[in-house]
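Pinned message: reference record for AsmA-like C-terminal domain-containing protein
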Amino acid sequence: MMSSTRRPVLTRALLASACAVALLAGPAPSAPAAAQEAASAVQDLVLDNVSLAFGDTLVTAPKVTVSGTRLSRDDLLAILKADSKDAKEPAKDAWPARLQRLDAGSLTMPELRVERRDGEKRQVVTYRDVAARTIRAGRISELTAAGATLSVEGAPQAGSGSYGRIRAEEVDLTALARLYSEAGTAGSPFQRLYASLSVETIAFIDERGTTVSIARLTGRDLSGRQTPATWRGAVEALGDGGLAEDDRAKRARAAGLLADLAESVSVGSLEATDLTVKEVKGEDPLSFSIGRISYAGGTEAGLTLAEIGFGAKEAQGKVGRLTLTGFSLEPTIAALRRLSQAPLPAGTNPAKGAAPPPDLQEAELRRLTPVIGTLTLSDLGLDLAQVGAVPGPVASGDPLKAAKLVPLPPIRIGLRGASMSFGPPQDGVPTQTRFSLTGLTMPASAVEGVPGLGSLGLYGYRDLDLDAAADTAWNGEKRELSFRELSLSGKDMGRLHLNATLGGIGPEVFDPDAAVSGFAMLSATAKALDLTLENGGLFERFIDAQAKVLSLKPDELRKEYVTASVIGVPVILGNSAAAKAIGAAMGKFVAKPGTLSISAKAKSGEGLGMVDVSTAPTPAAVLDKLDVNARAE
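Predicted structure (C-alpha cells):
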C-alpha cells in the first residue's frame, strides 16, 4: 500500500482543479486596480502573482488567464477572495455560493503550486500548463494539466515524484466545496464530483531509494455526500486521535466520524496499470509489481489484481489473478454507530479524580470486522531458495579435480486455483466459511517435516499434486455447527472426505470475551460424523514400502493387516457389534483397497457431549450411544 505522500493522487487532481478556478486569492499587489468592466461583455482577464492560504496549505499561481467570461474583474475578485469571518452575508460569501457564480470559456495557468506544511514536514506539488475549459456555475467540462512534480521534505516520508498528463471531465467544484465546508445529514443526497479522471506516468522515490511507479491511473463517477461534521472537519478531528483513544468520549466521536465518512463516498470504478515497487538498498532487495488493479463499485462491487509478481532474496513468485467479491462494510459501519453512542453504565457519575468505570466498548472493536466475501486466486508460482550447496558437474578431462559446489535449486510450489469465502460475521467471526485449494504442486521433499505427509517421499512420490477443501456453517436457530466438507486428495493417492455436525453451539461461542466463549464450548456435543476414504494408489505404495522395511512380501504384510483389522480393532473398541462392523469393513478395505465409509450418529438428539465421553468406562460404552455403519466397496 502506498504511503500518505503517494496515494492522494485523486485529491491532488481535484485540488488542482479547485485551485485552478476557485482557490485563488485576489490579485497580488502587482495587479492594478482597474475599473469594473461591463458585466454583459465577453472578455479576457489576466491576474498575476495570485496566492491564497488555507490553514496549512498555500496555493500560488504566477499567472492566471480567464477567457470568455461575462464576469467583471470585481466579480471575479469577489468570488475568489479569501474567507472572512466578518462577512455580512455568510451564506452568500460561502465558497459553494461563490463558486456557483463562476462562469468562463476557459481558465489557464502555466504553473500552479500547492504547498502544505505539517510541523517539520513540507509537501509541494507543482502542476504545469493547467487548463479548465467551459466553466459554468462552478462546473468544469474538462480540466487538464501537462504534468506535475512532487517533493516531500521531513521524516519519515521524504522523497520526490512526478505525474504525467492529468485529465478530468465534468468536475463540480461547487459540490466539492459543499462537502468540505457545509454540514449535512445522513439523508443528504450524493453529489458527483467528477465523471472521469486519468493520471499518467506516476513515479515516486523516497530517501531510502524505494521507488513506486504507476503507468496509468483512471477513475469514473466519484460522488460524495455531506456529513454532519463536514469532510474537512471530520478529517481534521480524526487526525487528533482515533479508535485507539483511551478517552471514551473521544473514541465515540472518532467512531461516528469514521462511520459518516464511510457512508459518504461512492466510486464508480478505479483502475491502475503497471504498478511497481522496488527497494534496491539493503541486504534484501525487494520488488513487487501488479499488471492491473481494477475496482468496480455499486451492487456488484469487486476488486481484481492481475499479473502480480514479487521477488526477494529468499523467494520469487507470481500470481496470475486475485479477485475479491461480495465485500461489505455494513457490519463495520453498524459497529461504529454503536461505538459512537458510548453510553456510560446506568447510575454512573464518577467523581473528579475517581477511577474510570469499566470500558464496555472493547468488545465492539472486534465487531468492526466487515463481510469479507469471496477471495479467489489463480495461477500461483513460488520459488523458495534453499540453504546449502551440492557438488556440481566435474570438469571434463580432469577426473581428480574436486567438483565445485553449486547452490541448491529452489523449491518450486505451484497452485492452479484457490478460493476463500466468508459469510456474515457474528460478533466479528464469520458464520460461514469455504476454503479450497486446487492443484497444489510441490516436490515431496518440501513436506518432509509435515505430520501425515512427511513419509510420502518414502512411498515413491517425487512430486505432489494435492487438492483440499473445508466448508463450515453455523445455524443459530438449531445451535449447530456443520462441517459440510473437510477433504484432502492427491494425484495417484486417493481422497479423504469428512463431514460432521456439532450441537450446542449458540451465539455465546462467538462472544468476544474469551471466558464466555470458552465456557460455552464446554456444552458442545457431537451429533454426527461421516468419514470416507477412497484409495487411488497410496495404500499399495504404503504396503510395498512397509514390506521392504520388514523384509516381507507385500501379500504377507497385507494378510497381517487384515487380521489386525478384523480381530484387533474390535478388541480395542470393546468387541461390540459396532466395533466388529468397523473392524470387518477395515479388513475388507485392506484386502482389496477401494472405498471405506464409516458413519456414526448419536442416538440422543442432543448429541454426545464431553462429559459422556470422559465418564465412559470403556470405548464400548461410547459406541453403545452411537448408531454406527461401516462398509467397504
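Pinned by admin. Summary line: Residues 172-343+368-372 form one domain.
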